[in-house]
């Protein structure tokens, strides 16, 4: 048993960077004033919130007053989409994709109940490698389209969509454009002065800040309707006393992200590639899910045919290796991920998919350890798999789900 945690589940959440934690701590103890207060004690906190906003804006090449603090990526997504619909009361068509995070997918599927109006939602299909067809996207836009919501990078495969081109197309048709960039921020360079999105969602806990803090970028001039109506905070764009410590921590995390972006795209990418190539070479019937290059530098999603992803995770857990599987055991049935299904990944492969998502804190020794431990785990599980036996040894197995 390895006593050290090998954490390769950074698309699920990240560790709070030590520098971020240190920056946050005084705002839980000595500096507890309300940033809106008139007194000096609160005012000094307010100034730190202003500085944090500036740091976040710098990472995105946005202006500070284009940023609205929220509680998470999910709130940013909901705010953007509902605001886009309110800005276009006569239009009830939304364009999105089949591979969005539930924060967008489930919201779009709930709009009729939520608003009391009937909406038409186009969920664009993806290719086998997880990429989008731009021509099909362009054709999906109509005079009835109120807003497009397409993620910048996919959380399961890391596949990156051509957001700059897509936003430009929407803008040329006078349609609002939202991108869920929760997985992109801090991993690839972002320049919002060059990408004409109206709304852009960020989540702190994906880039080494705390859980429970998000940002919604709203382009200057884009009509905006608040999701949380209350006090004057965020210039009336989001009521509720600010999550001061987390905002200040996110400012620090963005400063660190700017410093680490080259490392993400060189060192982290090299580690990811070593892990991915090693797994594909050492393990038979291993398949990469997602485009080889149009991908986040930290993410690899590999299917090991004829085994259950959850069984693999449990075995990895014995070695303190943290990863994710592309299937979730829900109400007794093992549903493969909607992302892999949209990519047409066969049933036998979708069930055995594992996502490793790295960060700047991972090391080559950790990659080597996984490359040593995972191949025998897969071999052992396949020995017990009726599907593997059927396909490789001519024996007939049972129904297969060991949920
Ligand atoms: N969007 C994407 C692409 C995500 O990966 C996640 C989290 O996994 C979210 C939205 C939701 O973010 P949060 O957990 O901050 O609500």
Q: Ions, cofactors, ligands: which are bound? A: pyridoxal-5'-phosphate
Element pattern in H and E: EHHEHEHEHEHEEEHHEEHEEEEHHEHH
Stretches where pLDDT falls below 50 for ≥5 residues?
A: 394-403
Strand order of the largest sheet: 2-8-7-6-5-3-4
CATH architecture of the largest domain, please? Answer: 3-Layer(aba) Sandwich
Q: Main beta sheet: strand number and arrangement?
A: 7 strands, mixed
Structural class: alpha/beta
**Mean residue pLDDT:** 94
Number of helices: 13
Radius of gyration: 22 Å
What gap, in angstroms, lies between the N and C termini? 25 Å
CATH fold type of the largest domain: Aspartate Aminotransferase, domain 2
Name of the CATH class of the largest domain = Alpha Beta
- Annotation, overall tally of beta strands: 15
**Approximate shape:** globular
Summarize the structure.
With 403 residues, the protein is an alpha/beta fold. The chain has 2 domains: 6-13 and 261-391, Alpha-Beta Complex (Aspartate Aminotransferase, domain 1), CATH 3.90.1150.10; 18-257, 3-Layer(aba) Sandwich (Aspartate Aminotransferase, domain 2).
Please characterize this protein's 3D structure:
By secondary structure, the protein is of the alpha/beta class. The protein folds into 2 domains: 6-13 and 261-391, Aspartate Aminotransferase, domain 1 (Alpha-Beta Complex); 18-257, Type I PLP-dependent aspartate aminotransferase-like (Major domain) (Aspartate Aminotransferase, domain 2). Helices cover 41% and strands 15% of the residues. It contains 13 helices and 15 strands. The chain has helices at residues 18-24, 40-60, 73-87, 102-115, 134-140, 163-172, 233-236, 244-282, 309-318, 338-342, 347-350, 364-384, 386-393; strands at residues 6-7, 67-70, 93-97, 120-124, 145-149, 176-180, 199-203, 214-218, 286-288, 299-304, 321-322, 324-325, 327-330, 333-336, 353-357. The strands form 4 sheets. A 7-stranded mixed β-sheet has the order 2-8-7-6-5-3-4, sandwiched between helices. It has a 4-stranded antiparallel β-sheet with strand order 9-10-15-12, with helices on one face. The chain has a two-stranded parallel ribbon with strand order 1-11. It is globular. The chain starts with 5 loop residues before the first strand and ends in a 10-residue tail after the last helix. Residues 394-403 have low confidence and may be disordered. Pyridoxal-5'-phosphate (PLP) binds next to helix 3.
